[in-house]
TrEMBL record:
This is Fas apoptotic inhibitory molecule 1. InterPro entries: FAIM1, FAIM1_dom_sf. One of its GO terms (cellular component) is cytoplasm. It comes from the Eukaryota.
Amino acid sequence: MASREEITVCEDEVRSRYSHLEKMTDLVAVWEVALSDGVHKIEFEHGTTSGKRVVYVDGKEEIRKEWMFKLVGKETFTVGAAKTRATINIDAVSGFAYEYTLEINGKSLKKYMENRSKITNTWVLNLGGMDYRVVLEKDTMDVWCNGQKMETAGEFVEDGTETHFSVGNHSCCIKAVSSGKRKEGIIHTLIVDDREIPEAVE
């Protein structure tokens, strides 16, 4: 038979584990946004009786407004290391139904992600039991790994360029080679310990 003290401790543990979920009774929308520094989760609470608005980014409260008489409108905040601008639009659809849309840098999430796939390359790999997400920003040639901007060294080689960096004790290189086709442009390949890593689709 467990003592009363043990039971209280267990109840407190359960309560604290679920308090984040308990508070989120008005959760109306969840989005996952892949940025260079990682995939961020945006959650939005909207109390349609109180007008309450709460925005969470990666589980951390960014905005809280309790009594709002206007139930429609927008909330703007930033996401990730680069402080990317995000806006949640709240629109009335009919009666008491609402539609919630997320914009990133002024574009709809879908448009933003389509554009992003043109200007970045992403690779997901496992090294020594650890998962890594490597992102190349093609316009700046910045390389990110698990949310950190990497120190890189670039060099020109016979058929293009190589950007060198290391992850743990693994040597990594992103090769940039012209495809020879105008539409395809430059092909970027990640090589880790002399092994080519296939590109991830996000």
